Amino acid sequence: MKSKDSKSKLIDDMFEDFLPNIHRAFEVLKDILKRPSAMAGGILLLLILLTSVLFPLVFHINPLDQDLMARFSPPVWQDGGTWKHILGTDNLGRDILSRLLYGSRVSLLVGFSAVLVASVAGIFLGLVSGYYGGKIDHFIMRIADVFMAYPFMLLTISVIAVLGPSIFNLIIVLGISDWVTYARTIRGSVLSIKTKEFVEASRAIGTPDLIIILRHVLPNVISPLIVLATLRVANIIIWESGLSFLGMGTPPPMPTWGRMLSEGREYITDAWWLVTIPGLAIMMTILSINLLGDGLRDALDPRLKNL
């Protein structure tokens, strides 16, 4: 009976801790709505996400279908363009718009998934390293130093060359290669939080370490991680495009923005749209994520509230 009462009390305490977080999330959202740049970035990113997910429902041109009779068709606003291929076609007559929309799904999937893998690994190792310190902290940080000493892109290319190009391998490699950023960030925050009075009081009354970490430490270090994760999505998308440009990303014939740039660079003087349009797609996606990330940083940092 006592065991049930203790479990019920723990659930009630976790629920009470959860309500302020909901209120905090609404406050952050209201603050973002007051910032035009963050709003613009959020709306643009939402449009990109919606078009990448919903385009098969309204756009029925296969991005792999070839039409050699329509190769190098220009965009519709240029002489010779047609509404059948709004953004033109490539050297094999494949529709640029369908390839662009399908490529957005690949880039966004890799970006968000790799950040999820990196953040989960980095948060766990950073919490353990910062909270327990000592030999555990020394061991984890020396592993982090080894990862940081090896060039990121070279490490990624080396692993992809061994495992072979695929979306799954790309997500895992990019995620594992980027965990150090999150681990070091959260470790520094934990080192300052764990000496606070409320943490010391919980430890003094015999609260288990896991409960202290989940209830007192993690909620107080999660804000900078949200901002960091948002901005790292943009970096991962750039790295994925770079790897695809080098032929080390997803396997052909799957269209990606980086591969579209790679395939179109030979025809840039005759068919400018082959590289300009996917380049603009990458730029607009990165811009939207950075604007949203800056808005989150300003909303979550109390020192910037009145700026």
Can you describe this structure?
The chain is mainly α and 307 residues long. The chain has one domain: MetI-like (MetI-like fold), CATH 1.10.3720. 74% of the residues lie in helices and 0% in strands. The protein is built from 11 helices and no strands. It is elongated. The termini are far apart. The model has no long low-confidence stretch (mean pLDDT 81).
Structural class by secondary-structure content:
mainly alpha
CATH superfamily: MetI-like
Order of helices and strands: HHHHHHHHHHH
Determine the strand fraction and express it as a percent band: under 5%
Shape: elongated
Per CATH, the class reads Mainly Alpha
Tally of discrete structural domains:
1
CATH architecture: Orthogonal Bundle
* Continuous helix count: 11
Please estimate the helix content.
over 70%
The biggest beta sheet reads: none
User: What is the CATH fold-level name?
Assistant: MetI-like fold
Distance between the termini: 54 Å
Would you report the number of β strands? Answer: 0
Q: Averaged pLDDT, please?
A: 81
Outline:
The protein is an all-alpha fold. The chain is 74% helix and 0% strand.
Give a topology summary.
Layout: H1 2-33, H2 36-58, H3 96-132, H4 134-149, H5 152-163, H6 167-177, H7 179-193, H8 197-204, H9 209-245, H10 257-264, H11 273-300
